[in-house]
Design a protein that fits this description.
- It is a single chain.
- By secondary structure, the protein is mainly α.
- 37% of the residues lie in helices and 7% in strands.
- A two-stranded antiparallel ribbon has the order 1-2.
- α6 crosses α7, α6 packs across α9 and α7 crosses α9.
- The longest helix is centred in the last third of the chain and has 18 residues.
- The N terminus is likely disordered.
C-alpha cells in the first residue's frame, strides 16, 4: 500500500544519519571523518610496503592515494583506468566506484614496484571475490536485487550510518522508502554529485540537475557513491526488521529511527536545540 508522506521539500536525510527540515530553514552540515592518507615518511625513513584503503573512500580519494603511495604525478592513476582492463559488472559501465575494495594492498610484487593498473585490478578482483560469493550474491537475490544494486545500497549505508550498529536500520530505511515509492532524499548522494563531504546542503543543492540527486530522482543512484566495507554490504542484504522511514542523530551515540513523521519532527527539533546550545556564543 502506498503511504502518504510529507512533501519532498520537508524531508531530508543527511550523511551520517542527520536530518534537517528545509521548511524550518535548518541547514545541517554532514560531518566528514578525515582518514589520513598513507604516510610516506620523511627523507631517510623506510618507505612503506603497503597501501591502506579505508571503508567509505570515493574512487577519487583512492586514485590520489595510489598516486601518492607510488610517488607518481597527480592524476596518473585515474588516467590508467583506460588500460587497466578492470573486471567490473556490466552495470558499472566502466566506473569502478564501489569496487575499489577497502583493504591493505602491497606496493611491491616479487620485488617490483606495483603499477596503478595492478593495484586497481587487485582492488576490483578483491571486491568481486567478496561480493560474488554465496552469502552476498544469495542475499541480494533474496531481496530481489542484483549484486551491483546491493553494493550501491551498501555505499549509501556506509556514508549515512553513524555506527556499525546503525547500518542495518539505515538499510531498512532505504528499503522501506524504495518500497513505498518515496525518494531517498539522502544528502550523501548530493555530496557525491558535488564532489564534497563537509559542506552544508542547501535548498538550492537539492535542486541540482544530477542523476545522483536523490531528492529529484526516484530509486537508487546510477552507481555506488563510495567504496563500502563488508559490514555495510552485509547490512544491505540483511536489513534490520522495522518500519522506519526517518532517522536523525540527535547527539553522538543517539540516532533515532521512526516511522512517525511527527515524532521525527520532535527528534529534529531536539537535534537543532543541541546544535544551538553547543555553538559558541557570539561576543
Amino acid at each position: 500500500m502506498h503511504m502518504n508522506t510529507p512533501s519532498r521539500s520537508t524531508i531530508r536525510l543527511t550523511r551520517r544519519g542527520r536530518i534537517a527540515l528545509i521548511a524550518t530553514g535548518a541547514v545541517v552540515a554532514g560531518t566528514a571523518v578525515a582518514v589520513p592518507l598513507l604516510s610516506l615518511g620523511s627523507e631517510g625513513e623506510e618507505k612503506p610496503t603497503s597501501l591502506v584503503i579505508p571503508e567509505g573512500w570515493r574512487s577519487g580519494q583512492v586514485y590520489e592515494a595510489v598516486d601518492k603511495a607510488l610517488a607518481l604525478p597527480a592524476g596518473t592513476t585515474k588516467k590508467s583506468l583506460a588500460k587497466a582492463n578492470l573486471k567490473l559488472p556490466n552495470d558499472a559501465d566502466g566506473n569502478p566506484e564501489g569496487y575499489l575494495f577497502p583493504a591493505t594492498y602491497p606496493l611491491e610484487t616479487n620485488g617490483e614496484k606495483a603499477t596503478p593498473e595492478q593495484l586497481l585490478s587487485f582492488m576490483v578482483d578483491t571486491a568481486n571475490k567478496k561480493f560474488n560469493g554465496a552469502p552476498i550474491a544469495a542475499g541480494a537475490q533474496r531481496n530481489a536485487m542484483n549484486v551491483y544494486q546491493a553494493v550501491t545500497i551498501a555505499s549509501i549505508i556506509q556514508a549515512e550510518a553513524a555506527t556499525k550498529a546503525d547500518m542495518g536500520k539505515v538499510a531498512r530505511v532505504v528499503f522501506n522508502r524504495l518500497e513505498r515509492g518515496m525518494p531517498l532524499q539522502m544528502d550523501s548522494t548530493i555530496n557525491y554529485a558535488l564532489n564534497r563531504a563537509t559542506l552544508k546542503t542547501t535548498t538550492a543543492d537539492t535542486r541540482i540537475d544530477s542523476p545522483y540527486n536523490s531528492y529529484q530522482r526516484m530509486g537508487l543512484p546510477p552507481t555506488p557513491i563510495d567504496n563500502p566495507g563488508e559490514d555495510a554490504v552485509r547490512a544491505a542484504i540483511s536489513p534490520t526488521p522495522g518500519d522506519w522511514l526517518y532517522f536523525v542523530t540527535v547527539k553522538p551515540g543517539d540516532t533515532r529511527f521512526t516511522a512517525d513523521y511527527a515524532e521525527h519532527q520532535r527528534n529534529v527539533a531536539e537535534f537543532n536545540r543541541n546544535q544551538q546550545s553547543s555553538s559558541p556564543k557570539a561576543k
